[in-house]
Amino acid sequence: MATPCNPIAALSLSLLVLACGSALADAPAAAHEPGSWQKHEYSFAYMGFTSTYSCDGLADKLKRLLLAAGARKDAKSRPGACAAGFGRADQFARADLVFYTLAPVDAASAAGDKPVDGAWRPVVLSARSPRELALGDCELVDQFRTAVLPMFATRNLDNHTTCVPHQLSGSTINLKFESFVATSAP
User: Fold this and answer.
1) pTM
2) 140-176 b/e with 16+ CB inside 10 Å = b?
3) Cα-based distances in Å from 153 to 47, 48, 131, 177
4) Running along the chain, 186 residues long, what does each successive block of 10 average in pLDDT?
5) What's the helix, strand, coil split of the chain in %, to 5?
6) Domain map (residue ranges) of the chain
7) Dihedral sign, CA of 161, 162, 167, 168?
């Protein structure tokens, strides 16, 4: 036999569920884990159809992408050897990258080095996130994803980036992942 529903009890239960759900959403999602710094050196050669960069402009964009993806703050991105002069667009722009990423380690295997406190942080790359990223950077983000992002400790990669060569219409930057980053300054 069904019992009649008490509206006050139902409302109280709903508020309790909302309050508990809200508290769970505010709780830190990631536990801290030990990590160690990994050094990377890479010569990035941009190959795209829609946008061209000067070598110094490419270096600036790549540094922003490195930092957004979770590289240590001392990341270096320097203009590479380019045929065009400073500030001039080059069809084959290059940049030399030197950066550190944090990789998770077992506490036992980190006995030699002092482990760094790290956690998984969500990262979203899209038009205007970071602020300097525009639709014209679609091919750069896609190339960064395939060439540089594997050097980071990442998980839950969700890539819905679509680049239409020679046009901005139809292009979308939508790259999401979690990156293992230091929870305090090195």
Assistant:
1) 0.78
2) bbbbbbeebbebbbbeeeeeebebeeeeeeebebbbe
3) 25, 26, 24, 10
4) 47 41 42 94 93 93 97 96 73 93 80 84 95 94 97 97 86 96 79
5) 25, 30, 40
6) 33-182
7) negative
Give the dihedral sign, CA 143/130/151/174. negative
Residue (of 137, 121, 120, 148) closest to 174 by Cα position:
137
CA distance 24 to 104: 25
Angle between helix 55-69 and 138-147 (nearest 10): 60
Q: Which pLDDT value is given to residue 70?
A: 97
∠ CA(101), CA(51), CA(179), 5° rounding? 20
Q: For residue 186, is the peptide bond before it cis, meaning its omega torsion is within 30 degrees of 0?
A: no
CA 21 to chain centre: 28
109 near 147, Cβ under 8 Å? no
* Of 100, 107, 32, residue with least CA distance to 72: 100
CA angle 129, 94, 65 (to 5 degrees): 20
